[in-house]
Amino acid sequence: NWVHHCTFYRWAYGGYDEHRGALLDIGSWASSPVDESYYNLIEDNTFAYGGHHTLGVYSKYNVIRNNYFHNETNPGNWSFEGYRAAITEGLPGGVCLYEGNRFGFSDASGMGLRTPNNIFRFNTFYRNGSGGIQVVSSQAGVDHADSNHIYHNSFYHNGHLATDPGFQGGMYFANWSGASPVGNVVKNCIFYDNKNGSISYEGQIDPQVIENNWDQNDVDPGFVDTSGTDPDNPDLPDLHLLSNSPCIDSGTYLTTVTSPNGSGTTFQVADAGYFMDGWGIAGVQGDEIQLYGSTQRARIISVNYSTKTITVDGNITWAQNQGINLAYEEAAPDLGAYEFDESGVSEEEYLVEVFPNPCRVYQGENTITFSGDLSAGDNIKVYDMSGKTIHDSGELSGATYEWGVSDITSGIYFFVVKSSAGEKKTSGKIAVIR
Predict the structure, then answer these.
(1) Residue 34's pLDDT is what?
(2) pTM for the whole thing?
(3) For residues 344 and 310, is the Cβ–Cβ distance under 8 A?
(4) Are 153 and 123 in contact (CB under 8 A)?
(5) 117 in the Ramachandran plot: left (φ > 0), alpha (ψ -120 to 50) or beta?
(6) pLDDT of 263 over the 70 cut
(7) 3-state percent breakdown (helix, strand, coil) of the chain, nearest 5
């Protein structure tokens, strides 16, 4: 089934605070008989004001992408108490992709995650009363949120309505069954302004894999606009990155190639659970991947999760232990839900956000020397008027640097100097006149 460009709006049953009903459910929670409502594509919809949740997923091999979920209390004449936005649970569930969705303003968690082997990426979770994602094993052998891959998501201002610390944080892990969730990966995400920190735990929880996230919860990562408080506005808050965000190019690789050095279309990886091949769903392609530190890209046509084998649509050359990501721009992936696109940034945005300095004019010169507040290990990037990177110095070896401009046409250019720790040191704009 393909469910797209619909609005599911205001339906519940029971009393004000009984949290009953849903707007759309896929499959059945019951494990016997198994409801095989598989291979559905749910995209570009709005789900708002349900009972217990707005979307429930109880089956496998579904893609849920580019939807907006919110479930707050008392909007206008809505006479029911809001609860969570979406949930996945039950033994028949798991192995679904949630991508590019917005989960906001729910009175409880943005997402109740109780099934295994799902992929959550490029989603935003903001202003949910409890944690953005609730990762729970609630019934032993039935609801078990294990081995989920949660990467490149942004979590902002979640958990502020919850009074129990175990229900706060950008995400929270909970053990309600005597069997903790295990093997979940949280990587390359941004956590900012979430109550009780980035990730909270209720009860004894087995260790998860938590790597390379922006978890300085009280330090602004450089979101474009966090002012939005109107649930009917799907564009705010805007959790894209400003051009001076320290999260740009700060992501790490997802997994590594375990096959010996070689080339071809089939290779093995340490963890195939980050990727999908489309699962045979009409309109869904396999992931486009990129070898870390290389510009080589290819489209996945098959993933064998048991053997951790990936097959792609063209020859690539790899080294053993080389990293693999989804396709990304510039030197490395960015943290969070959005990859910063330098080519799409206007001159005005650069002048306002990054380049307030007066223009330095270089007339008829073939070399421009950078000096002053520079140190070994710093990096200089130069951009043209459209925001496209035209020069990258790499890591400086000393306190001066010469940029050869013999092949540069007349125009205005912008530069940013960052320290080896990725902190902005200075910036400015220069005019080259031929």
Answers:
(1) 80
(2) 0.80
(3) no
(4) yes
(5) left
(6) yes
(7) 5, 40, 60
CB 81 within 8 A of CB 102: no
Beta strands in 188-308 (DSSP E): 190-192, 199-202, 209-211, 223-225, 238-241, 255-256, 262-268, 288-291, 297-304
Is there a contact between 156 and 125 (Cβ–Cβ < 8 Å)?
A: yes
Q: How many other C-beta atoms are found inside a 10 Å radius of the C-beta of residue 167?
A: 21
Residues 368/430, Cβ–Cβ less than 8 Å: yes
What pLDDT does 265 receive? 98
Cβ distance 403 to 362 under 8 Å?
no
Distance CA 266, CA 305 (A): 13
Residues in the chain: 434
**CA–CA separation, 21 vs 255, rounded Å?**
39
Q: CB 368: neighbour CB atoms within 10 A?
A: 19
Q: The tokens 């707005």 sit on which residue?
A: 54
Q: Which residues pair with 304 in a beta bridge?
A: 309
- What is residue 66's three-state secondary structure? coil
Mean predicted confidence (pLDDT) in 356-379:
76
Among left, alpha and beta (phi > 0; psi -120 to 50; other), residue 61 is left
Q: Quick count: other Cβ atoms within 10 Å of Cβ 375?
A: 12
Residue 196 clears pLDDT 50, i.e. is over it:
yes
Distance CA 240, CA 190 (A): 11
Answer for the pair 273, 304: CB distance below 8 angstroms, yes or no. Answer: no
Sequence-ordered alpha helix ranges (H) in 312-410: 347-353
Q: In a 10 Å sphere around its CB, with 0-12 CB exposed, 13-18 middle and 19+ buried, how is residue 117 labelled? A: middle
Mean pLDDT of 303-315: 97
List the single range of 65-74, 99-108, 139-148, 188-197 with lowest mean pLDDT. Answer: 139-148
Identify the weakest region by mean pLDDT among 6-15, 73-82, 148-157, 282-291. 73-82
Q: Could you give the dihedral angle defined by the CA atoms of residues 177, 178, 183 and 187, in that order, rounded to the nearest 10 degrees?
A: 70
Closest CA to 273 of 209, 330, 206, 223: 209
CA distance 373 to 382: 17
Instruction: State the Cα angle at 422 between 357 and 156, rounded to 5°.
Output: 95
